[in-house]
Fold these 2 entries.
Entry 1:
Amino acid sequence: MASQVQEGSAENESVFEGSLPIGEKLERARTELLDLSARNRLLNMPRSAKSAKTVDIVDEKGAEIHRLLAVEQKVFTFLPGRVEETEDGETDPQDGADPTLPALIQPEDELDGDGNAARHVDTKLQTRLTSKGLQKRLLDMFYDARTLEEEQGVNILFLAIGALKWIDPQNAANVRRAPLVLVPVSLERGSAGEKFKLRARPDDVAPNLSLEAYLDRVHGIRLPAFDETESFDYASYLGEVADAVSAKEGWEVLADDITLGFFSFAKFLMYRDLDPENWPEGGKIVDRPLIRGLLTEGFEGDTDMVPEDAKIDPHISPSDMLHIVDCDSSQTLVVHEVRQGRDMVVQGPPGTGKSQTIANVIASAVADGKTVLFVAEKMAALEVVKRRLDTTGVGDACLELHSNKANKRAVLDELRRTWELGAPRGQDPGTLYERLTETRDRLNAHAQRMHVEHDPSNLSPYDVIGQLVRLRQGGEKPNEIVLEGALQWTPDDFIKRREVLGELVERLDMIGIPNSHPWRGVGLESMLPTDVERLAVRVAELQERLKAFEDDQKELAETLRTESAERLPETSRLKERADRLARAPNIGGAALGDESWRDVESIIALIRAGQEHAALRSELLPSFAKEAWSTDVTETLRALMELPEDFSGEVFEVAASLEVALARMIDSSGSLSRTLGRPAPTTLAGVRELARIAERVANAPDADAQVFAASLWDSGVERAGDLVENIATFETARADTKDGLLDSAWDVDLSSERAVLASHGEGILRYLSGEWRRANRLVRSFLARPDQSLGETLALLDALATGQAARRRIEEGEELGRAAFHDHWRGERSSSAPLAAIVDWMRSLRGMGSEPRMIASRSPDRQRIAVLAETVEAQTAPMADLLEQLRIALADRGEPAFGTDEHPETADLGCLLEVVTRVNSAERNSSAIMTPAPDSAGARALLLKRLQEEQEAAVRVEAGERLGRQAFGEEWKGIGSDWTKLEGAAEWVRENEDVRVLAADMADRSAPAAKAQMLEAERQNLQDSLVSLTDDLRLDLEEAFGPESLDDVTIVDVRERLSMWADSGEKLSSWVSYRDAAARAGRLGCADVVQRLRDGRLTSDDVVPAFEMAYFEAVYADMVRSDPELGRFDGTLHGRLARDFAEMDRERIAVAGIEVVRTHHRQIPPRDGGAVGPLGILRGEMQRKRGHMPIRKLMERAGPAVQALKPVMMMSPLSVAQFLTPGVMEFDLLVMDEASQIQPVDALGSVARAKQVVVVGDPKQLPPTAFFAKMTGGGDDEDDTDGARVADIESILGLFTARGLPTRMLRWHYRSKHQSLIAVSNRQFYESKLFIVPSPYTSEAGMGLRFHRIADGIFDAGGTRTNQVEARTVAEAIVAHARTRPDLSLGVAAFSAAQRRAILDHLELLRRDLDPTVENFFQAHPAEPFFVKNLENVQGDERDVIFISVGYGPTVPGGRVPMRFGPLGTEGGERRLNVLISRAKQRCEIFSSMTDEDIDPDFASTRKGVFAFRMFLHYARTGRLTIAESTGRDHDSVFEEQVAKALQQRGYQVHRQVGIAGFFVDLAVADEDRPGRYLLGIECDGASYHDAKSARDRDRLRQSVLESHGWTIHRIWSTDWFQRPMEQLDLVVARIEAAKAEHDADESRRAAPSGPLEIFAIEREEVTEIGIGRAEASGPETVRYEEAVLTRPSHRHEDLHETPTGILSEMVEQVVAIEGPVHSSEVVARIRDAWGLKRAGARIQSAVERAIGVSVRMQRIIADDGFLTLPDQEITVRDRADTNSPSLRRADMLPPQEIAVAMATTIRDNLGATRDEIVQSVSRALGIRSTSAQVKGVILARVDKAIAKGELVEQGGMLSFVEPSA
């Protein structure tokens, strides 16, 4: 038995996440779909009980019910039973209504002709239930059926007619009922006061597929085929079922057993759909790329995708936006990536526009010519997308195959309607896309321009304008102050300068006007006169020391042959040169000055070789003998390198042993082979085989050579053995009868006589038998002793019979005996012993072939062979072990010895001997020079390699002998040189080439260094003294000397400045007094400010404002210079540009819709075609009045035609399995909506049919639930407290995400008209990532959340698990809403199924008494009908108003609330809450008998769902999380702050940054007279304007969405405000007052009731209604063949063949231009006709052909196999029926190009065709009325060529185009 459908998701996780092979994963997954247990209602219908969602129909005839309901489509009602009812409404068994027995019925009425009573042929179904029980049951089933169809997209309400009573084979006491015929039905009623009616749905009547599978698998019973057509015979079918189960004892077909209930075999259909055996070869489900990625391989990440935070306009042009409905930036990115062919997950939080995104994705796919499969379980999800597509005309491309849309007649009618659609009308977009792109770019440019940051100030124009507005409002005027370097100031620089100027103002009165001063740069704050005197002495002393130092350094520079120093630090250069000279190597001057040093690298290389040699010799000395240094070890090393490194001494010994053993064995085997006369073996296996053969030959029996050579022994050994056994048997029989029978008895058959004697025995009565007497007489005549006993006689007769039989077989085998044994054979006289020896020897040769026999036939020397064989055998015995040791030792290097398979038995012995000989030689040679030799080959090879390196280094040193002596003189000593010393010398020369010659010329190289040392010490002292002086003076070196450092000041400048200071000591005090105040401002670029302060143009109070105005004006002026558009901006024009953009964007959406519709219409086959192929099948079905083939069969046979008409199929996962045959239909794109609720196994069939997938859902919302399984299984749907546990991967959405499919998130939230409706979800579940549109209504306006505390509500925890008081309150609130606000749609969501039913019960009672006008509310809002659901199935629904009934509360009045919250308390409960609280668009009202304070915080902290629920209740009750009116956030800019201040000065209350997440209104003006809403929202062009992801978001959607939420929006352009502040302020005030007046006038106005939806239809051409009649095969459109008529040139009088080729070439081109493609013969005929000739001879033919050749060479025409065309000439199909030239219809005159076009058009228009259909269609199109064999051959040859080129494919006789690879 398979697992239940509702088992936990942990099993799913183990199946899909494990490492199982993909086939096993798929098998385990599909097994979960199959339920053949007694829980399956299709195998075991529950009897009508409280928990069973069924109604048993009693006392009715099944055949009549089937006829009336299914065939005649009558509408039925229900009759209750007539017995007292119990508390629950069921019949009372004690009153005679035992549900296990047939009901007591009234006496029979009069019967009609068919034996039926009147009550059996009416339309009233009799039940056992009481009136109350029946109504309650039907009500529950009515709501459940509707909910199930909405949730799963499939109807599961059936009237089961007829049942099979079967017995559980495991327990005979378990008697089951299984339905046989399932009629799909619907329960209907007009209002709550009407009775329920039962109506058959237009779907097919179905058999019980689960029962068929169960009986076949478990009992081996195959039910009869089910006729799904209108001709189905109920009685015959049940009779056939009875015959099929007749062998089963106790089983019975119950023809009148009728039950109304929920039955579903959809999971069984899915189980069958996922069977790999049902998928075609080459397209197996496990080979589908998406399936492999989903189940095993995973998917690539989001590489190459546009980042989510990127601005999209640079990536997506308007012409690429095929959006048929509005699309924000996050949605646009999704559509774009899908069009790029990327698979992805789209996370769609509540209200973020999933349906409009899907609609745009589907429309774009249709425009791209793709086929789409749109899958969702919820009917609402499919319908909302369909409605969006319908409003733009794209819905015509969609075929709905779900719920009530999936019936044959409706499908065919919809296909017919689509086929008959006219071409869509609409203007060509013209330059719309170019204008839109240009406008978008201009808008983007302004947004970018206003917010591009100026470098390095980090200020944008928007920032600068804000500052200038602030200064101007403060009264500051423009000025002419020049700030040096202001455009290079960073923000810190600006602040620093502003602070310095502030200090400057304070000290202004203390500062004089400075001029040039000798003490400029001194930073002393005070100076005493005595300090001045001491300073004069220090300056004089420094002046003298500096002069002496200057003279000494010049002298040293001359000695060192270099320039003297100009600045003090440069004297270090002299010291460095002297030090390098002192470090020169101790080498003779001649050697150091030698020219060889110019190539110092060669000398260093020689030293390196010497060092290497010395190191290697030292390293290897302990390991080698003396003679090793001169020994060539190349071959030895090569041999060792071929061995593994761990080839040890033991293996060397093995190799040595093998060398001897192999040589001996090869020699011995060679001798033995020669003796035997066969080739010598080359492998050990061959040697063993040789020894075996030799042993057999040596032991051959003595026999003639012919015996051994006989071919009979190849296959007749056993026959010869049988013959020898007969010889032995005959010999034995002869011996046994020799003394008892005469020889004459052997020639007589005594078997019958023996039987007679034996039958009569020795009884006395035998003598009375004449038969016995005759037999006895005959037998005794052959006995040697007639008086012997009967037993002895019978034994002799038996032996005789055996011998006679053996002799007969010997005689029969005479020829065999002679062929096998030759002279040894003597018939029955042969001796068996020698013959048996021969046979036994022959048998011993099995597996050895005939070779031993052939050798034995040559009579070799068997004794020598035996000796040699024994020798060889002994030699091979140890060989395998030795070879195996060698093989193991050689490891992966054994191929030279053992070959590629490296097996000792098959290795070539010669190669083995060669290898081991080479190994042994290497071992001996290496051991001879090593002291001692290492054990392993690797170690030996390493040492030998190092030895080679030593020898090579020695050679290099010897080669450089001459160079070494030149460079080093006496220091060079060959390989014995001091290499360290020589290396040091070479390094010095390489680093000091510039002083090498100077060193060579100088005798005392250390003297200059000593002098330089003294000079350097003096320089340091001087510098220290100068630094000390400048430090004491706090000298600003830059101001004093120019350079910023003393190191950059020349010695002359220092000396002159010292002289100036010495002469000006008294001026120092005057400098100190003002320096601190004046210098800093000047250095910071504010010199102009300082100057204006000095001359009085600026007062102290004006300094900072004037400085800021000058700075911001300078920056803004620079911005305008860089981008003059800033200065030319006009807000009025820009606003108009934004409006134009919005209008063009809306026009683009309309154009996109037209474009999509046109693309679809172009793909629709012609209405007058389609008599063949898939189109012919579809047309035939449309012609039928009845007996239509099932939808599944239609899709299988006419799939291409259906997809051409309807490229988009909208289905549920169940209907995919139900209607689409595996492998028949493939889709370019699969879109799955609400994927978090689809189980992975349910979605696999859809995924397998697609090339690309888009998975839309929300992991934060509901996972798959058990609701559907509970309704169709045997479980109790009351038990909804545990809920389905949520695992990491419990849905197809989670599985795709886990497999690495990239994710995109939709962020704009549209649904909630008030922030409070989504605030908790956004904060708790989406980390505040959603862009929530703020509401203009504040908390006082009555929108958003409302909390109703039901004080007296009691939760019946132990009984009904309902809160009746709360349910009644909710029902009353529903009725109140229907009365007061019928214009608003309403939905009710309960926390449990029990509470939902309680609400429905109370509502049912209230509705009975409602006024019809109020009752109409419950049928209103067709797009958003009223519902009452529980939290398990409310996902995907949205309504204007949502009522939430919590249900949970205290169990007794005033008691505590038990901490039991159903699914909320389980893992994933928070996801259910998220769905529940995010359904409302305008208002959400919570009805609860408890508050957040009743929930234990500790308990809530351990359960995410309860925690979120507690927070939601708190929010709804207190509003303390309310952040709807104003966030209180700071202004985004100074500009907005100034606007707010200006409005506040006018008396308005202004709130800043209104909103809660992502979407904020910059400023909002409140209505103080009427709190509750904002008068005006003000949008600036600040940060939120700039940060928009696209121009559409910024300049259209943002304002459009705000206005749709009730805002009045006014835009202020900062540039306009800056340029014309009063004008702009007056405009804002006027807009505020206008809005206020409008609100005053509309104070009492409510939203207008919703009227009928306005459906935007695509305007199409007029269509003439035509019947779908039989048509010819749709062929290509043709034109009449036009023949060229040429005129002979009037100025040419010569004959045609003498006419210049150029003229003829022009005429050729005229013909081709009119008739191309055309055969050259026709061109000749046209030119001939121009000359009036009747025929064209060889000369004319040649002349025209030359002209054709000229045109071809000039590339003016193209010649292809005799047919001529112009370059790029369009090929059209032409009708030749009325042409003058009869040859145009000849087969060889038909252009292949034209045939190809006609053929392709036929296949395209008919979505396929057979060969005969193509021949007929093409020949008719070409104007050929009678198709000859030649014409047919030419057309079919073109077909074959197209198939060979891969353009066409032939499947099942149908030709179609090859699908392009993805």
Entry 2:
Amino acid sequence: MTRSSQIAPFASKGKAGNRKRWGSGSIARGLLACHSSTFDCGSRIRGHMTTHITARLAWHDDGWNGAICRKPERNTYCVGCKSYPGDVIARERDLALEQRLAGRAASKLEGYVPPCSYSYNAFGLDEAPAAANPPDFFFGGATRHKWSLPPATVSTWPYEAMYSDEVRQSGYLDNDIRKDLVNKFYKPIEDDCPNNLIFYYVNYSNPLSEDNAPRYVMIGVSRITQVSEERRYENVNENVGKRYAGGMIWARDISSAYPEEGVRLPYHRYRDDLETLESFAVIPERAALCKYGSKHLSDDDAIGLLEQFLAKVRLLKASGDISEDWNIREAWLLKSIAGLWKHRGLYPGLLTTLTVIGAVQLIDTAKALCIKQGHAAAHAAIFGALETGDFRGLATVLTPAESKKISRSWLLLEDGARLLLRDILPRLELSAEAMAAIASKQWTEGGVEVRPEEIIKNPYLLCELYCGEDASDRIPWGTIDRGVLPSPDVGAPLAGIDYNDAGRFRALCVEHLRQEPKHNFRLARDLIVEIAQRMERLPAWKQATFSERYFDVDANILSGALTLQSTDEGQIVYLKSVFEDERYVEEVLQRLVTRPSIELRRPLIMADWNSWVHKSGSMLAQQGGADYRDATREQAGICERLFLRPLSVVTGAAGTGKTTVIQALIHAVRRSEGEGANILVLAPTGKAADRAREVLEDAKLQRVETVTVHSFLARHGWLNDNLTFKRRGGKLAEVGTLVLDEASMLDLELAAALMRAVNWQTVRRLILVGDANQLPPIGRGRVFADVIRWLSTNYPESFGRLTINLRQLLTRARGEGSAIVELSRLFILQDIEITTDGKDDWDQPTSLAEEKLIERIHAGGLVDRDLDVVYWDDPQRLADTLIGAIETKMRGGGSDDKGRPDQLWRTSLERDPTAFQILTPHRGEMHGVEALNEACQTHIADFVISRVGAIDGITLNDKVIQICNRPKSNPIWAYDNNTREKCRVEIFNGEIGIVRNFGFDNRLWETIRTGYGPRLKRFAVQFTRKPGITVGYGKDVPHGGRYLRNERVEDNLELAYAVSIHKAQGSEFAHTFVIIPASHNRPVSAELIYTALTRASRHCTLLIERDITSLLNARRRENAQTPQINSSMFGYLHLAKQQLLERRSWYESGKIHEALTGDMLRSKSEVIIANLLHERGIPFRYEQPLFAGDGTIKLPDFTVTIAGRTFFWEHLGMLDQTNYAEDWAAKEAWYQRWFPGQLVTTKESGRLSRDAEGLVTKLSSAA
């Protein structure tokens, strides 16, 4: 046996899997021993060190002060699907009563116990009532338990402990084992009280979290003073007591010393100021600390969190916040950090290291040595004994045979692994799994691809390279930093590492760049500012003054993880992997585009293209006339040109026929190369792949492989077990024609992974298809926008832009209106740097025709047959307004039928759950996803829930959406009604369906009818794209295995009456209801509105808050998302303007920053005028809505104030066109009627600068 075989990489949980992957070495045995009794092992590993805890809270708008929120209707987060505990608050909250009791303290609640009682008294100063209702599956076998919470007390729930593998050892959920595990979880908390800390946080249902960026938020911290005894429900009958651990309530109360000790961040004071909230919010560096309710924390974890709190307390103090004496809070934090360092010691990972190497017999000895002689002495004695095999001085009970075996296993490890496990890893607070992965020769399993000697020289490599169970499972920089540079009171730094060490600086840069979710690079000076702020939050003894000079002096060392480039704007910094990804994508595409044209094996003529794009049996073919012929001619021409190109892009707005072009191109491949031609269609999401598959089948294109990019990568070995991408080592796929649909959703990392996975020598053509006007990808970069800019400018023969909107032609042919398409065009904003055919591609100024459409939108009501506009002012009444609009559409608009809402919605959604869809930009607030879903469910399903209950907030007939991917590697069990067999199916994030009961659960309807009978414990979902398939969720769902199977609803599904616009990207709905809020904190973007509008295939209802200003602000260039992403592909540096990224200090809608005229205006002529006004110091606003006395509206190009007088400046560009001249005459008359003497104009000409200057001089003189 070689030494390397003694260490096997950690890969997956489960004892059988671990044994197989870890092998039989000492590290494998140690990990298996630990996993055989997870929590017992964990408590033994922590030894004499303090055990702290996290506590999950439901969001509270008034600081968790033991009172009802002052405006309970506004707190939509506490009833969100990611609230706590579960869906209890959503099910049990009496909002009408809470509104009457709003703001009242716990002592004045008139017997009412708010369902947020588990968390609302976290920082309360008095006792507060709490209660827990027994779950539905007790079936009346127990009753409600009430108790009194002491001041500053929360009820904590250790989900992770309750759902460990041990609970199901017998094939079913054993609640007695769960009880034992819960008690074991709380035992060290009780033992360490009052020396341990409790850290409060909220789950994803919070104001700082969105669908595309979910975040935990830390609320506060205090010292634990008491842990309650276990509690039970009242009147527990024998059956419930036997099956459910005596009717035990799993939650336990933990009280703290607040307000005398601790910190509560003042989120409640800045509830309506999102930017300020963001500035002092604590987002945990390790998200894993906040998973699964309550978790144990080590001293090292606690120090890291306290340092984060310390930074924010100092920020609040500096900002002038007077809600607390922050000096006192700062002093407490500093004192607590110092105390924790003493507990932590120099070797917090010593006991874990012994577990990893299989020397668990030495743990008790090591504990005793740590307590008696200190960490350093214990470390030296333990490893000295391992090296020599002489354990006599350790006072152990080991037999000679055991001593020899342990020492031999240690000595068999490779030298590098032994040095890591002896000198580096014991100084770090890491999990046993992470240590095993790091010490393993199989470096790539943990994401670490360097030799042990390199880690010993620079331990900061671990936070740069390690990646555990998923992409978020990283080792934070702070964890390594505390091990390398401990408190001087504890010990000395690791040899050779200074506070300004280049490796320390590099790792800090890497972490900050990695946390940047969008940009491909950062300006070095901005990065240094962030790092300086990070240093300020550290204790003084470990601060370093890093500067831009370090990038030059340490360039050689930094180059191992960073790439530095000099530009006219200053030095820019990339993650090396990101820079390489940009270059790799460039290289592949440049090689393809410079290949010679493809030689066809069989000829194709224009008649072929026309036959494929012209849908002869369609309504458009029959009624579209010349317009349809022009559209198909455009499509056929693009197809003919692009088919010969090895690389091509097909783009166009929604409804322009991109799908038709894909179909035609695939028809052509088969005609030219034969039916067996190698064609692959990829899409970034499962939902998009499903849709692409359907449209190909509709076109009679069978057997075209259509899968997600991730599935393709996994099949060819380019995904690690943790679902991160490999950069080498996979199999190259051989493809003939590769079509990438919805390419605008492709982020840089995914694009590069795809490029690496293909053997490009076998590829004849790559076709990218997408709509760059939609939202940019959720991940890093703007790949599709960059490809469009490059191809359209340099290789126009490879670029095809569809311009004629067939959807608009079709709605006109049907007599259904065309306002959706016309309005969506207002939100197409070009990057001003992007050029087409060598011409400047500036957006055009708002035309008079567009102003007419804006006026119709402003008037509200029926804009066209396909578009209605409803204005709303009161957020509390929005849901009623929305539901009324939906039900009017469901009834066809001509019926006053007041039948039961549940019947109306069930009938309307039965055939197509996506027929009526609410879309909103945000998850929270009263206009957000969670509040609107709750309102719809209450309106429709309240009665059903009262009779049969709900599972994680979902009940029968609810409309739901899958929130995670269940691909082939992790399918879900379903029932195929066609074959009458159980089967595994793939379900993808974003699929929508309706909840039904299983046929064998028909007694539920008897319960609904009579109120007596079984309650809901499982259900089936019929997804839109899975006809005949019902997918099971809940407890004891049908499946093909031996034991009962549970599919947690909370992990898979959410309500889907309303979904976020981000979630809807790539989908299509017959009728949409789009919410446009007037939010200054979260301005909506042009891409967001465009995406929302173009989801509707037949009709859209816009629900706009207050007035049209909310909609018009989204058109402003400064609110666009794609131009504000840094990238540098194809030789062009796209740098987002810093003034736009940090505009809080100056920005108001319509205000133009002097340095940003080219980024905020729509035409060069307008830039000339704006620059002149800036030079003269004349204040102005751009396209500021102007309302007349009769309620009509115009958008003057500039609203100018000179010497106290206001003028409206219109720049006229097309007076030579008859229609424009007529429209301008009407607009001019409007100004003369309502604002006489205030209109000034300039005309488009070569002397615009001189004319504008003369006008300004004239106005200044007159004033």
